[in-house]
# Entry
Amino acid sequence: QENRPNKRIYYVTDEGSAAFQAWVAQPLPISPIKDDLLVKLFAGFSVPREVILAELDNHYRQHCQRLAIYQTIAAQFFQCPESFSEPMTFSYLTLRFGIAYEQMWLAWYHDAIVTLKTLDKPSNLLA
# Structure
């Protein structure tokens, strides 16, 4: 390695491999949703509507960017799922979850925007 620091090569020990396999084999409960945006949205009635809409738009842009990144990865590396090796199949499944999550979030965003806009209709202002 000329002109660079010495490379360090690490290996997984037998003990580390056994601990990892034991961890993977343990069942997990589903993870709770922890999202600061949802906390803000829950209390969104207490701030001007524009504040919540701006925050939703901010997240919308970020989710669009992340979806585009995932779709680029899928197009570059995962074009033919039926020919994947076993490790590649597991990577592909993980990527597909990310894509599905971002698509779900974007669909939820559109529903949330429509719902918030109905609050501005006169029949809801009397409530």
